[in-house]
Automatic annotation (TrEMBL):
Gene3D superfamilies hit by this protein: Periplasmic binding protein-like II
Family of this protein: Belongs to the bacterial solute-binding protein 1 family.
InterPro entries in UniProt: Bact_solute-bd_prot1, SBP
Full protein name: Extracellular solute-binding protein
Main location: periplasm
GO cellular component terms, A-Z: periplasmic space
Annotated source species: Palleronia caenipelagi
Record keyword Mitochondrion present: no
One Pfam family per UniProt: SBP_bac_1
Amino acid sequence: MTADNRGQGKLCKHRSRARAVWFSAILASSLPAFAQDGRESFGVQTELSIYFRNGTDGARHDPDWPIAKRAQERTGVRLEPVTFPESGDTARDHLQSLISSDTFPDILGGGGLREVFNSLGPQGALQPLDTLIAQHTPNIATYLEANKDALAGARAHDGKLYHIPVIDPAPTGPVWVIRQDWLSRLDLPPPNTVAELEAVLTAFRDGDPDGNGLRDDVPLAMTMPGRLDHLLVLWDGRGSGSGLAADFRMEQGRITHGYTTEAFRTGVRHLAQWAREGLIDLAPAADQPWGMSLIDPAALGAEGMPTGLQVLAPPASVTGYRVGPPRRSTLRDEGWGIGFRNPNPEATIRYFDFWFSPEGAALANFGIEGVQYDRISGEAVLRGVEKLSPADIETQMRTIGARISRGYPPDPAFDRAILPPAGRKAVDLYRAGGFWQRPLPPISLRPADQRFYDLKAPAIRNFMRERLTAWVSGESDVDDEWRAYQAELIALGLPDLLKILNTAYRQQGCSCAPSPETRISPPPEAAEDPTIANPPITLNIHFRDYSGRNTYDEDTPVERQAAIRTGIALRNVPLKRAEKPADAINMFLTSGDMPDIFGGNNIEDAIRYWGVQGAFLPLDSLIADHAPHLNHFLQSRPDLVAGARALDGQLYHVPNFPDGAYSLGYFIRQDWLDTLGLDVPQTVDELHDVLLAFRNDDPNGNGEQDEIPFFARLQSELLHLVTLWDARNSGSTEFFDFYIEDGVIRHGAAEDNYRRAIRNLALWYREGLIDPALINAPGSDRDTILQSNLGGMTHDWFGSTAAYNTIIGEEIPGFKLRPIAPPQSPSGRRIEERQRPQIFPHGWAISHTNPHPIETIRYFDYWFSPEGRRLANFGVDGVHYDLIDGAPVFRPEILNGPSSVVDLLLKDGAQIPRGFPQDFAYEAQWMNDIALEGIRLYEDGAFLADPLPHLALNESELRIYLRYWRPLREYMAERSMDWIAGIGDVDTEWDTYIEELNDRGLNLLLTALNAAYQRRECSCEGAE
């Protein structure tokens, strides 16, 4: 990652342009929202009571404000403030008191009330507004539709909207500034990286840049101590996710806290060193000269600021990222709602709507035309503010009732107009560079959770802020106190608080599941005649089978039947030299002779890449217009197709969709348990005791200690045992893959539970509970171990493992190999992480030179029809199966043939890696009752961990993945197996191991994968 890579906050901003267009449109309009005499809209003068506390200064509503008077003239509505109750100081206290009285206000409004709105609303104190908005407010309805992404955080936990929020279309945040005159005097360029920044700060300290002959200059001044943690990004740490010091933050689709990470500790260590060396001052005197700081753009050029300040792009971090502080939230904590006693909610909501009309919006933002502003060439230009600071202008506007915390649409033109030129330049630079971090989104909590948050969050933030200041100032050392610090955070309730916040965020955020309003096309009726082409046509296909051969068998029973039924035959186009799909596509493009269809095993990444380049046709429109079965399938499962899309959002291939989630499970020798008088183990400790008994108590009865307590065909299965100690090895079918938890992609081999698991597996290996072949060879010889009556327990596929009860049951009297539930971990969890993927990287695509794209997509659709799906899964009716009571049933010669059912089907053209939906029933038919019993056991117990979602990586993310992942995975596996075998010690070598993981690119991989996951979540939202 180079220093020019931009930072956070660019995802899911597809609605920002709609906001800008909307605002331009309403200001350009000359039509008022109400009739020419506003009072005609209400018929009579209407008086409503209001409880109002302005967010900035706490001011109450004043009906004599010039803005209030003008609004009354235009709408006929007068707002009378209620008397604040004497009990309590907060709005919540006041409103709770008013609820029980007869004076509960008709309108509640002001700043800092969103949590109050969303708490009291579901309790019945406020009226829900969605229906009122839809029926009576054309301006608000249009505005909220253009701001759907921000509106989610304004809703209460019951999904309803109880207040009209204030949504800022162009929020800003702090920026880096530097004394350009000091740089010029010392002949230094602006710092571009953290290393260059340290060199500049050192020069500012030693070089007397202000020329007064004293060493009194502050290189980096924290003029606002709450922004100290914004410096942590220089070492890839993260501080607060908002303007509130030590606040929670949004990171890779999940709410977390930056103060708990190793990168935070590293950043604190460096900041403490800077403080010791005099490069940073946490509390500079007001008259002390300083060279760099973080300030708001509005403060540039303000009185008291140093001369010669210049805005600076954030210096690149140690890994090359340029990340600035978080910007303010798009959703402001301001607005107003309608009280439950309001006698005229329709008139009230129309009054609210006035402030979103062109006339009302201009009044709320700029004041009265001809008094506070003039309209010149269609633009509002403020009067008499040339010599005022932005803060003074805002204060002046509030004194007349403009720019207060009512529900209205802030105009970005106002914010820009009051900025000094240097401030505008700073905003333009940080917006263009995408430097501001995405802020912590507003979260609506249930009342009990809100009370827990109010109790715990301030104490946690205060503790964190105190420790950060103490560590950086040198009062104590972060490394000495780190473990105690983490323990105190747990004691203060941080894990519980994070769980509450993430649960609430997921509930209010985008989901890939179809919403109740989503219209899914009904499944098409089965067509009697699936003919697509008459006369028949032939399409060329380049196809890669599961063995990697570049060939498509044109003469299989399944291919012949499909050609007869559809009128489309496929002709194989081989390519001998290409080993990878991407190479094959490149060779075809170079030759100028692309096949009509490109498909087969593991082609997805190549199709997505070359699809964006124009080599393949985008399929969405073709599917919607010509593929009803496929269209219905994809609409019903947008979560699946999201990960198959290319970076441009288009779908370029029809994937292969597996069926059935459960594939592997634990099996144990029930007859051995019976022989030793033992129960099925329910916990990891009980499992240890059972395996120890298998090892020592001669359950096979041959008088020798030859039993192998745990064995597995694949070495990878040994490391899946880490789940027994709450660790994770993988979130997919891939060995040592990443996994997802609480909305963030992680890797289990870098977490403390993994260390505990490896420590215990090493103990089990020393005790002889694990087959040495799992360390010294690719895996155990399952056939030999079971046929020799040596194996006690394994983890393997349900179908093939359960079959041993039939295969060798007669050879070993009483042989019972039975499935059991995953034993409970120390925390009480039963975890099975091995499962089928949600989508295979197989399928097929239509090339850009295909002369029959409509016929081809209809051919693809055939395989999603009931007939085509049966053909793809079971083979040919009357040859491989018979249709009995509407269901395909394999013939005896297929089930009892000389080869496996799967091998026979593949040979005859079924179950090949074309684009089709698998049917688990084909597999269930050749499973015995014991295997099906195991699957039901795992289904009923819901043991599966959340699967790693299917991700589409962009070009830069794919480069990171290809560069780092394979060697990193090999290193993880090597160290893990060494520790289990007793080569080294996991506890003494753990810190070095973690450092090595990051040196080998783990953090870069996690950042890339989480970015892809965040895009996937947004694409799911768009699909709805």
